[in-house]
Amino acid sequence: MNDDVLSCRAVVKSYGESPALRGISFTAAKGEIVAVTGASGSGKSTLLLCLSGILRPDSGEVTFAGRRLDTASESERSRLRRTDFGVLFQFGQLVPELTAVENVGLPLLLAGARRREATRVASSWLERLGVHDLAGKRPGQMSGGQAQRVAAARALVTEPQVLFADEPTGALDSVNGEAVMAEMVRVARGAGTTVLIVSHDARVAAHADREVVVRDGLVEGPDGRLVGEHLATSGGLL
């Protein structure tokens, strides 16, 4: 039985005349933690954006739980990001006017939960990430590491099937970065969440079950060759 929950095949994405993905294929299994690494400009963040439905590829297929994302409407993809997907960015992007518990509960409120229930669930996730004592504090009153843990709680509060994390420790020092990764991975494993981590940091990649190296918009194979089903430069198979 195929247990892949997220995949793409022969995905191509360009920004104007600049190709970012050149026929990349990728799979992630249920509950698997995958680190996508590569140099700046390799295409790894664009891969995350296409897999999460934030960007639509120019061609190729993106599939989540047997459903095509690349052909889904914007409203369908937005709904998935509110329910089945969690997204964590480098700087957390917490709402500065809201407290920690309000930030974490926000996705639940947007999904129609009552405020009391959203607060209860948000509080439990702050506790899981080790920052329950920050429940009443606003982002400006937190350290970088604390704010990123709150952001991780917000990304996980809907109990998504997939968590997308783009350079989740990039704005943190090594000590805080390690602490955030350890907590995030611990909680994700406990929930059976598939995690896709984009990072250039080998210490972050060490937390994953598997590392996928992206170079020039394609996956780098074990022998160092680029693997893809289409090359924009040659129009052929590699």
UniProtKB/TrEMBL annotation:
One MF term in the entry's GO annotations: ATP binding
Keyword annotations of the record: ATP-binding, Nucleotide-binding, Transport
Domain ABC transporter: from-to ranges: 6-238
InterPro entries the UniProt entry points to: AAA+_ATPase, ABC_transporter-like_ATP-bd, ABC_transpr_LolD-like, MacB-like_ATP-bd, P-loop_NTPase
SUPFAM superfamilies associated with the record: P-loop containing nucleoside triphosphate hydrolases (SSF52540)
Pfam families: ABC_tran
Protein's name in the database: ABC transport system ATP-binding protein
Organism: Kineosporia succinea
